[in-house]
């Protein structure tokens, strides 16, 4: 099993698949615990300072207000300043949902809509549909900023309704009554206390499963989103999707548990294999797996089932749950979701069996994902798969890698997301990079800090499993930098274009760090290896400064009807309240540029498009 073995190797021996390049003694340090960031200025293999015109043009202080707001009218500047000022008033932010509901009743639908478009909605949301946002996308592109379309409609349901829907969609009808809610697998169990996944989450959208029709409807929305990207970005844009929106989350929950339990089982097998053998073994050979199962007296029929599941290519190497298996092999998903007991070796089901309807729902989810990716490729649009909570993320990550393995044959159409506040971020990334190289597919990654920290910490503490989050902000920043350097090193080592990364951050220090590391690694702004990403309506002093200098930069462009994106607007207000120091700088720059236009007689300034460096 490629994924399981990589994870096993990095945990036990901190090494990777061996190919000739890795055999150099000097690189052994790099592929151990040492960080590329630590060594990057000392190793000739990746130190190649370049003369990049974009680097020379970029003001890394991000203090040039005139340059930052070239794309904005004076009305845009005043509205942005007003919105940020309102976001700093604690009473308004803490009660924003109630106030918006009151405003809707008092003003009526038409006036409320006009007010929102002149304020919060107009600042944070690009428009109501794929057609109305086209002008925004085209204007941003004139100033060097490309787009990731994100349909931001959320259903504003009650906590009680969210809890009910989550329980119904995460617990199988056939789940044993005596299933344990303690022990090493407790993280992957449904818990009523944490059923409302919106709680203590500001920066991420949450979907709750209703029924198959609603999932089909969301799939159609994603397909229209792809059409919007294709029609307005000329093959430069992305569409963003969340897998929990496309089906019953029970499947992701149980797939995540299976992957974790199988990883632990491979720890047991690895303990029987001399460590030195890993230098030449790219995956656990079937003979080793069979020998171990025989010692546990596992029946031949069960061994054969697992060979079918784990060695679908027939090459004698264990490679669990490949995408072809999940979609096409004539094996029930309930049989796939069986794991070996680490002590006895006996295969135990996560659920006794899926009901016929549950089996159909799981298959439907996979088919929807497959349909979306195939359509995106047809339209030459790339997909950004959002990361979610850790109890879903093993499954999401695995599905992303299998999508890459199947679809990223000619270029990186599918991008996975790595949350760098997680302790396992770097090791997971290394596993995935090694798999991409071994299987010869293009690798796409988006790196973020993460959106679920408070919720994840509270859940881990309450349920009694290890906190998956780094100890503090500094540790997360270190992880972010290490993950970035790992990607840059591998991107430089492999053929150009095999690896692409989006550095998604509003942190100016992280942007500066990335730009400087690109220069050190010899990666040009025009190499199509590194791009940057920020949210629409936020951090414009970074986005437009980068874009106008010639770097590849994207805005997450949310869209949707006014009244249906109110939950999104609520989260943006809360997010800006939480980053007052950064917003303070934006407000100052907005005031400076507005004043400059006033004293220079340019209040009626009309954006005409920038000369973007290339």
TrEMBL record:
Pathway: Amino-acid degradation; L-proline degradation into L-glutamate; L-glutamate from L-proline: step 1/2. The keyword Oxidoreductase applies. Its cofactor is FAD. Residues 297-584 form the Proline dehydrogenase domain. It catalyses: L-proline + a quinone = (S)-1-pyrroline-5-carboxylate + a quinol + H(+). It is an enzyme of class 1 (oxidoreductase). It holds the Pfam family Pro_dh. Residues 171-183 have a biased composition (Polar residues). Keywords: FAD, Flavoprotein, Oxidoreductase, Proline metabolism. Its EC number is 1.5.5.2. One of its GO terms (cellular component) is mitochondrion. Residues 164-183 are annotated as: Disordered. PROSITE patterns: EF_HAND_1. Converts proline to delta-1-pyrroline-5-carboxylate. Belongs to the proline oxidase family. PANTHER family: PROLINE DEHYDROGENASE 1, MITOCHONDRIAL, PROLINE OXIDASE. This is Proline dehydrogenase.
